[in-house]
Amino acid sequence: MNNFAVIERLEEFTFEKVKYYSIRFHENEDEANEFYDFLTRMEDISEITSDLDNLLLWIEEIGKHHGAKKERFFRHEAKGGEASALPPSSRIMELYEIVVEEKLRLYCMVANENVVFLFNGGIKTTRYPQDCPNVGPYFKQANNLTKKIDKLFQEKSIRWNDDFTDINFDSSLIIEL
C-alpha cells in the first residue's frame, strides 16, 4: 500500500502560464511518478495514440496560452469528487480544434490558474469513474491526493510564491496518505 508520496515538478511541462507537478509514491523511488506512469501505460495502446497526443497538446495549450483559470478547461466527473480530469468535454476541445474521444481520463488537481498537479488515469469504460475497473482506483487516488494537498496548503507545508504563480515546499516534504 502506498502510504507516503513526494511532489515532483514536471520540468518538461513547465510553461509561462502553468507549472505542472505530479507525485511519486515514496516506496516507488525507482519508478515513474504518477503522470509518467500514465503516459507509459497509455502510449502502448495504439487505439488511443491520437487521443493521447491531443491530450498532451491540450496540456501544452493551457500551459502556454490560457492558464488553468477556466473550469471548462477541465472535466468534473462525479459529484463529491475533489479532483478534476482531462480532457474537458469534446465540445470545449473542438473550440480549439483539438479532437479527443470521451474515454481517456487523466485525473488532476487545479491548485490555481498557474499550478496544476497531474496524477494518473486510464481509459474509462463506464458512465461513472468510481464504477470503472480501469480508472476507478485512479479517480479515488486523485480525490485523496487532492484533499491531502489542500490540507498541506492550509498547513503551509506547501506555500505560494509572492505572485501566486508557483509553489514552494521543502524538498524533503513527504506526504503521508
Summarize the structure.
The protein has about 180 residues and is α+β, with helices and mostly antiparallel strands. It is built from 4 helices and 8 strands.
Describe the structure.
- By secondary structure, the chain is of the alpha+beta class.
- It has one domain (4-170).
- 30% of the residues lie in helices and 27% in strands.
- The chain is built from 4 helices and 8 strands.
- The protein has helices spanning 34-43, 49-66, 90-95, 136-154, and strands at residues 4-14, 19-25, 84-86, 104-112, 115-123, 158-160, 167-169, 175-176.
- Strands 3-4-5-2-1-8 form a 6-stranded mixed beta sheet. Strands 6-7 form a two-stranded antiparallel ribbon.
- Strand 6 and strand 7 form a beta hairpin.
- It starts with a strand and ends with a strand.
- The mean pLDDT is 92.
